[in-house]
Design goal:
Blueprint lengths: L1 H7 L3 H30 L1 H27 L6 H9 L9 E8 L2 E8 L1 H8 L8 H15 L3 E7 L11 E7 L18
Antiparallel strand pairs: 1-2, 2-4, 3-4
Length: about 190
């Protein structure tokens, strides 16, 4: 397979640049897809479709990361901590991940490429909270079904300067049933 051989011949810096370009291209496609649906059907429909897509994508991404890093299912907060660092957009967004307690992990998006681009264009924050709830909750649940996901804040919420969203993951004693992954009041349908 010559394409793979060509990649293997590249130096580390070029491979990292290629990975970053792939992440940017993926994110650009995601945004263009969303804008097309929004233009055709409106914001509410676009958010609903985005939630459906993220529910599936985020589980696939988690499984691939687990396989690549040899993370076993049910690895708890340690596995989630590691997996979050290998998500595709981790290459292009500034994020901070830390423990606020032994079984509690916090994830902060310090710089979000999507939101920064909107700011540059003079647009308000993208209201990504409902989509993010699906994304993070199903990602964490795939890593370990005992992990409960909570949003601390995410647009359209008011946020502090220097952080776009914050999520908290807590390890529970018992697994969460798939139908209960999202908290009551979620707009996911």
């Amino acid at each position: 397979m010559p394409e793979r051989d060509n990649l293997l011949a590249l130096d580390k810096e070029t491979l990292v640049d290629l990975l970053e370009d792939a992440a940017k291209n993926w994110l650009a496609h995601d945004g263009l897809w969303f804008q097309a649906v929004e233009k055709e059907f409106g914001m509410e429909a676009a958010l609903k479709m985005d939630q459906r897509a993220w529910k599936i994508f985020t589980q696939l991404e988690a499984k691939r990361i687990m396989r690549r890093l040899n993370l076993q299912p049910g690895g708890g907060i340690d596995a989630l901590d590691q997996a979050l660092r290998y998500r595709l957009y981790a290459r292009i967004n500034e994020q901070e991940i830390y423990r606020s307690a032994p079984d509690v992990l916090r994830f902060e998006m310090k710089e979000c490429r999507v939101q920064v681009a909107r700011e540059r264009k003079g647009l308000p924050d993208f209201p990504c909270k409902s989509v993010g709830m699906v994304e993070y909750a199903f990602f964490a649940h795939t890593i370990d079904p005992r992990i409960k996901t909570e949003v601390i804040f995410c647009p359209p919420d008011i946020r502090p300067e220097g952080c776009y969203c914050t999520w908290q993951f807590s390890l529970l004693a018992d697994p969460i049933a798939p139908e209960d992954v999202l908290p009551d009041g979620s707009i996911y349908g």
